[in-house]
Amino acid sequence: MPVEVRFRPLHEWALPPVKHTVDRQRSRDDAALYRENFRFVRAERRPEHCAPWVMGQELGWQVLSPVDLAFTPLDQIELDGITDPKGAGRAANRSELWQREKSHLAVEKTSWLHLYQFGTARGWENMFLPNGAGTVEWRLGWAADIPRGYFLLVMPLPDVTGIEVPVGILTSTVIARMGEDNGVSIAVRPTRTTTVRRGQPIARIVLLHADSLQAKGLYETEPEAENASA
């Protein structure tokens, strides 16, 4: 039986991941149209006719933006979060401090960081949390149930501009813990002013088995060159 991944929205605004499919029939129809009506021009070598390309495009699920939002780059300075974080914030001349574990991240006041606060049992919480190195943690509001021994690989999409999605791997334990809070989150790094729309694909997730992470490469050495004088 195929392995199943269950996506569960935890908030009404959440958009669970969707399966992307390539329109192969349209490409075949276009090829037939060119073949039957034009003397010279053809459309036979389209990527939709290449099975490896199609399988690569349809692998996994696309992660969708749950909101309309205009991103801007977010410069962040990591500061001592224990000794004197407020003093460090004043020294960095930044207006906001965000505590992340043992550090504080100092940023300028940025509207989009606070714009989407959503209701939880604990009160209002931010959809975006500064994460360091110019990235933010984007809380997506849905949970995923995956079998033990599997992982979710987070990957960027090639046609998304203005935000970078660092490649990362989420374990089943981490995903389960996220599901108990506000759902799966991914890291994104805005690189310029850019707007995303609700329902727009922003990343891809792919299910991996533990064997994929433990696989080893074996390399055969070239046979020794025969004696040139032979």
Description:
The longest helix is centred in the N-terminal third of the chain and has 14 residues, at 24-37. A four-stranded antiparallel beta sheet has the order 2-17-12-14. It contains six helices and 17 strands. It is globular. By secondary structure, the protein is α+β, with helices and mostly antiparallel strands. Helix content is 21%, strand content 33%.
Keywords:
230 residues, alpha+beta, 4-stranded antiparallel beta sheet, 6 helices, 17 strands, 21% helix, 33% strand
Number of helices: 6
> Which runs of at least 5 residues are low in confidence (pLDDT < 50)?
none
Choose one word for the global shape: globular
CA-atom Rg in angstroms: 24 Å
Task: Report the order of strands and helices.
Answer: EHHEEEHEEHEEEEEEEEHEEEH
Largest sheet: 4 strands, antiparallel
Summarize the structure.
By secondary structure, the chain is an alpha+beta fold. The protein is built from six helices and 17 strands.
How is this fold's topology laid out?
Elements: E1 6-9, H1 24-37, H2 51-58, E2 61-64, E3 69-71, E4 77-80, H3 85-92, E5 96-100, E6 103-107, H4 111-115, E7 117-120, E8 123-126, E9 128-132, E10 135-139, E11 142-145, E12 150-155, E13 163-164, E14 168-171, H5 172-179, E15 185-190, E16 194-196, E17 201-209, H6 210-214
Antiparallel strand pairs: 1-11, 2-17, 3-16, 4-6, 5-6, 7-8, 9-10, 10-15, 12-14, 12-17, 13-15
